[in-house]
Amino acid sequence: MAKVAIFLATGFEEIEALTVVDLLRRVHVDIDMVSITGEKRAIGSHGIVVETDKIINQLNFTEYDMLVLPGGMPGTLNLEACEVLMTQVDAFYQQDKWLAAICAAPSIFGHKGILNGRTACCYPGFEKDLKGANVSMEPVCVDGTIITSRGMGCAIDFGLKIVELLLGEENSKEIAKGIIY
Asked: Which residues are within 8 A (CB) of 134 and not within 5 positions of it... i.e. 6 or more apart?
């Protein structure tokens, strides 16, 4: 079974993060909410406090198949400033392991050169940060092992695409039906 880590920084977009967590837990994918704040809690961009499963320094990254970066401000900036996380984003990219980002967070991939020649999407206004990408207006883009999405309104599409990629299209359709999507 796949194992996923989603990273929560101060100022993360709550719906983008928690929708992915909810959908993956419904289909029994092992997903850890990981705080980069140094404590097992993170405060979202709208003041919602979330108790996380782990703190980043507790992770053995080799156990994970996918890293997910939710957007939000200043959450995206805080994720990008986290050296431990950025080292692992680079390592996952080099190993062709799954990397997913939504809203402003695909800008992190652009800054790292991960999107060169790939199709990607992001929150409107961040397109300039998708360095080297073929920018799309689709709700979700998958190019190789890179998944990007546009924002909060696309969070269910993003989460369902992750389910599809990890467990197959039938499972994604089944969970979509179950949530009346």
From this structure: 117, 118, 119, 120
For 57-111, write each residue's pLDDT tens digit.
999 999 999 999 999 999 999 999 999 999 999 999 999 999 999 999 999 999 9
Residues sharing a CB contact under 8 Å with residue 65, sequence separation 6 or more, in sequence order:
2, 3, 4, 97, 98, 166
Q: Can you give the pTM of this predicted structure?
A: 0.98
CA distance 50 to 170: 31
- Sorted by where each starts, the structural domains of the chain and their CATH numbers stand as 3-173 (3.40.50.880)
Nearest to 80, CA basis, from 12, 146, 143, 20: 12
Helix H or strand E encompassing 30: strand 30-35
CB-based burial, 29-50: b 16+ in 10 Å, e otherwise: bebbbbbbbeeeebbbbeeeeb
Q: How many CB atoms lie within 10 A of CB 61?
A: 15
pLDDT for the residue 122: 98
The token pair at 130 is: 């998708």
Query: Which helix (DSSP H) or strand (DSSP E) does residue 33 occupy?
Result: strand 30-35
State pLDDT tens for residues 135-154: 999 999 999 999 999 999 99
The arithmetic mean of pLDDT across residues 125-131, rounded, is 97
- Tell me the CA end-to-end span of the chain in Å, nearest whole number: 25
